[in-house]
Amino acid sequence: MVDRPGFLRYTRKDPGYRSGEDRTRDFKAVELELDEAELLLQATRCMECGTPFCHGYGCPLANNIPEMNELVTQQRWQEAAELLLATNNFPEFTARLCPAPCEAACVLGINDQATTIRQVEKAIIEKAYQDEYIMPHAPSRRNGKRVGVIGSGPAGLAVADTLNRKGYSVVVFDSAKRAGGVLRYGIPDFKLEKWVLDRRIELMTREGITFELKTTVGRDVSWHYLESRFDTTCLCIGSREPRDLQIPGRELGGIHFAMEYLVAQNRMNAGEIESIENELDAKDRRVVVIGGGDTGADCVGTAARQGARAIMQLEIMPEPPELRPEQTPWPTWPNVLRASSSHGEGCERRWSVNTKEFVGNNGKLASLHCCETKCGRDEDGRSAFEEIDGTDFEVDAELTLLALGFVGPGPNPITDKLGVVKDNRGNIKTNDNHMTNIKGLFAAGDAAQGQSLIVSAIADGRNAANGIEQFLAK
Q1: 209 and 101, same structural domain?
Q2: What distance in Å separates the CA atoms of residue 448 and residue 442, rounded to the nearest whole number?
Q3: Which of 58, 76, 145, 382 qualifies as a cystine partner to 71, CB 3.0-4.6 A?
Q4: How confident is the prediction along the chain (474 residues), in pLDDT tens digits per residue?
């Protein structure tokens, strides 16, 4: 047991990353880990606030963070794991991928560095696996109800896991060769090694969940089939329609969507394909990533590992400040400058840049014609960008990756055939219980709420499972 309150004695310590030169030689995880002694000290920095904003405001899953920290300081690891798993189906995913809005809402963060909540969560779940606190526990009895889940990303897995534990028989359908959705195919291995995902899928399978892979619902399996064999179905098909950049030269070779690029590398890493197409190989090429978010950073890290000659990331928004601005006060998610591990691997970042034209030779991309912009607001209060005269410039590039976000789930055989209603953003419209306009058809995750965090998708999947349970109880 260690002394508290640690925030008066210890400073925040992050685990850091493997050295840049070493980590770009492979796709293994880049983040290091704190040893147990260091972690216990970090857990003592939790202030045990009377009103824990980390729990009630910051965490989409409402994890019981102060209580978990207290159990860790007492080295009551099994109890800590049970408490964590009560609110979070997959801590091993969120502990590696979540940007930790809980830490942004940490009360200690008002005038000091926040508690290392994400690292504590990771230590709890990994110790649970190591010491076999987590073992397959299939329900002792089934309730006779069957649920089909379309899509095996974080939302689909959360729906399946939550309902399976309550005695429902669940079948998860996915068109891919392996389960996991964006966790497997969209997230680079250097952020989430796939053995972490395989470990959980195996556990879920042993607990009674069936995975029907390489199966496209609406083509290989009809809606009539689902209706006749399941009491209800949940769409967890993600937000797959990428936002395009329709400017002159878009037809040139060498311009690709970010997910097309990331999926190809992940599939090669997994041995699903022997090699990636030359068009998607950054080796010895000048690469430009358009889009400054996490997906863009993932492209930067992947290009570095492929051996790109040079990498530049362009963002139309202005560069955020280093300190929290007044516009995003605590406990909101702060608009501050962030750098991922990928940005430390050889990347030039430019802000307030608009790409006006793709320029090519013989049908192949050769450069980007860009200009600087200033950001204002339109009459609806949304960001509006104005070109700054005399700031045009050229960026040489043989490969450009568009990481501009997503605009909804896009065309789908089931939603299109059934006439599933979508909202004005192109997402599947649902009621408070997550049911669509089609009775018995539910939707969860990015397909319904729009592009968001992994932790938000898991939370939405849990909520959808509760809505399904209420529907089936009638």
Answers
A1: no
A2: 9
A3: 76
A4: 566 789 999 999 999 999 988 999 999 999 999 999 999 999 999 998 989 999 989 999 999 999 999 999 999 999 999 999 999 999 999 999 999 999 999 999 999 999 999 999 999 999 999 999 999 999 999 999 999 999 999 999 999 999 999 999 999 999 999 999 999 999 999 999 999 999 999 999 999 999 999 999 999 999 999 999 999 999 999 999 999 999 999 999 999 999 999 999 999 999 999 999 889 999 999 999 999 999 999 999 999 999 999 999 999 999 999 999 999 999 999 999 999 999 999 999 999 999 999 999 999 999 999 999 998 887 777 788 999 999 999 999 999 999 999 999 999 999 999 999 999 999 999 999 999 999 999 999 999 999 999 999 999 999 999 999 999 998
* Dihedral sign from CA coordinates of 52, 61, 57, 191: positive
Amino acid at 189: D
Cβ 94 vs Cβ 455: under 8 Å: yes
Q: Which domain holds residue 271?
A: 255-402
Backbone angles phi, psi at 57, to 5 degrees: -115, -45
Is residue 138 in some structural domain?
no
Residues 95 and 159 both lie in one domain:
no
Q: Looking at residue 188, which CATH number applies to its domain?
A: 3.50.50.60
Same domain, 10 and 106: yes
Domain boundary among 385, 402, 419: 402
Number of domains observed in the structure of the chain = 3
